[in-house]
Amino acid sequence: MRSCFCCPTGHPISPWRISMLTAAQPFAAKRRPPDRSPSGLRALGEGQVDIWRMQIPSSLPARMGAVLSTDEKERAARCSPQVARAFICARSALRRVLAGYVGQPAATLAFHIDEWGKPSLPGPARAIHFNLSHSGNEIVFAISRHIVGIDIERISPTPPYEIIPLVLARREQQCLARLPEKERAGFFYALWCRKEAVTKAIGRGLDIDLRQIDVSAGVDQGETKASLSIDLKAVHGAWHLHHIAIATGFAAAVACAEPNCSLAFREFHDQEALAV
Ligand SMILES: CC(C)(COP(=O)(O)OP(=O)(O)OC[C@H]1O[C@@H](n2cnc3c(N)ncnc32)[C@H](O)[C@@H]1OP(=O)(O)O)[C@@H](O)C(=O)NCCC(=O)NCCS
């Protein structure tokens, strides 16, 4: 049965600019040197997960949405201005980034959207997996040859703790309850992002009973595994989790089926984006 939980944060997004992840990476796994060359994007090695970050402005450059499909433009037109701005920025930047990996013009990419809403690339380009998330000012993409899920959440000082019994596994609830009050909000969002990254990698989003996924192991460390209930694990396998430090005041995590993945953090400049 589908759950009806909302994310702990909303998705208003501001300044358009994809910038290098210069934030400290206390929980990131092996880092690669940043690649500033758009043409260098095509090299996506086995086990590599590229993490892209962008920020979005309150007003969009005129050419920003030029690469969107008719369906995408119609979707944006149905949204409120704030939601439309977020969608146009995220989807058009995603197209431009993916174009570099698959060697195809951004506007010609056709996304397949499955019954749970997860977009993927059809045909030979299906070898490139991706996922995106946005919250507050931030948008992040994960791109890999392996199935990936990513989530970012702005840390609210007043998290919706009322959803805890509905979304946290027993051990996660115990870990949270043991923490001093001032550490709880950050921990709650760290758990949430790890959990949502797993469900987005699986592709079912919040449709899964989130209590069946325990992400509390090593939540303060770099690379750990999510513990899935027996039924869920039998169907969906094991997922490896990485915390990613995107910006102050945000929690973020990426989940990948590959145990030895290597994270690379990348910058995307607006002038490069609009040149494609
Ligand atoms: C996926 C889901 C967790 C996103 O939650 P969120 O925190 O609000 O949003 P995020 O910013 O983290 O991620 C949104 C992006 O995830 C991707 N996405 C959408 N559905 C997805 C899914 N089932 N699995 C993985 N990724 C998904 C999309 O790229 C989406 O961006 P878009 O809206 O610009 O196309 C939520 O939409 C969900 O639970 N979906 C469950 C399946 C469902 O009910 N789908 C509706 C079908 S019409």
UniProtKB/TrEMBL annotation:
It comes from the Bacteria. Pfam families: ACPS. Keywords: Transferase. SUPFAM superfamilies: 4'-phosphopantetheinyl transferase (SSF56214). Gene3D superfamilies: 4'-phosphopantetheinyl transferase domain. Residues 148-254 form the 4'-phosphopantetheinyl transferase domain. GO terms for molecular function: holo-[acyl-carrier-protein] synthase activity; magnesium ion binding. GO terms for biological process: lysine biosynthetic process via aminoadipic acid. GO terms for cellular component: cytosol. Belongs to the P-Pant transferase superfamily. Gsp/Sfp/HetI/AcpT family. This is 4'-phosphopantetheinyl transferase superfamily protein. It comes from Notoacmeibacter ruber.
